[in-house]
User: What shape does this take?
Amino acid sequence: YGTVSKQAGVCSCPALPPLERTACVPVSPMSSTHASLQVSEDSTKKPLVVERGKACAPSRPSLWRRLVQYGSAEYVTVGSMCLNFFSSTCIVVANKYAMDSLGFRYGSTLTLFHFICTSALLYVSSRCFGLFERKPCELYKVAKLAAGAAGFVVLTNLSLQYNSVGFYQVMKVMTTPTIVVIEALFYQKQLENRLKLALTPVCLGVVLTTATDFRLNLHGTLIASAGVIVTSLYQIWSGTMQKTLQLDALQLQYYTSPMSALFLLPFVPLMDNWRPGSPDSIFAYAFTPYRLGVIL
Assistant: This one.
């Protein structure tokens, strides 16, 4: 690397091949601007490049190197978004198929099965495969979130049971505007006007879909509306607890999923038909390996 002489005003380089010595060029001490020459503290780590009339400075990494440096994080983000979209779509289609085509009209029981499977999968992922690190957490701090998770999953499954898939999906879109309203009223968080304007077409689309859905019914609409409110509260609580408890989504769900199953267990027989002598009871349902696979 070159050395800088403040008295002579030149940048001298050690003996290097001619193409490499062009990294430093003379700076005239008689220049009218009389630019001072300074060497950054990390000049021993990065090559020095001098432009005409400027002092030696570390060179910036190339655009390609920056893309390679940040590309892995972007790929993970894009892959997670695609996986979330694909899995959510498959869950909705499978649940609707189980309810309508396979006749499994037990939404609360279906939710209980999902919480049990999620808890088992998270346990195996952490203990056997090490996909995420388990962090200690006091259970009473996440009890409210676990109750909210049980409520919103039950209501969304019941909404899917009593409404069409189109109306179900449209009501889920209303979660974002509802979060904005709740945060403005109870958490004093205001959204920018341009973002509020962007949510206007969403609300208009919900109104248009509601007016044209031939399967619209009061019972299903009330369940869907309650599901939107509970889901919005769950999203707000989840984001807050991830920051306060310093847990990521998987670490937090590791504790909330089994607790949600326990909270839901006493209410499932009341919401679904678990009477053994009834012909419409879940005990009279014809379980097969294929149907059980679709349900789980």
Confidence is low (pLDDT under 50) at residues 1-57. The CA atoms of residues 122 and 128 lie 10 Å apart.
